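Backbones bend. We report:
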Amino acid sequence: MVLIDLAVIALVVVLLVVGVQEYRDRSTRQWAAAEATARWEDAHEAVEGRTRVVVRKVARLPTGETRVLGESVVDEIPDDAADWHERFAAARQVAYDRALDLNGPPFLT
């Protein structure tokens, strides 16, 4: 009877280990696929009294989880800059255009 109990416990442990490993492998495969199809996008954020306008390469899972794979800063504008709106609008346009270019097909040579 004790042998049967030990066998059942061992089987449950083995199944649990296999299940955890499969879950990790699935997550790794999902991220690999997301990174292979990552896209560049424009973004902005407030950082220490400045507005950073950037272009980021972002991988997304179907769950909505994201990873930033690369980033290029277009401009950093002090929040109290007199020309903040003009600089922000210009930087956003540059970031948007750059994202379009980076996501587009490569030029034929």
Summary: Strands lie at 39-47, 50-60, 66-78.
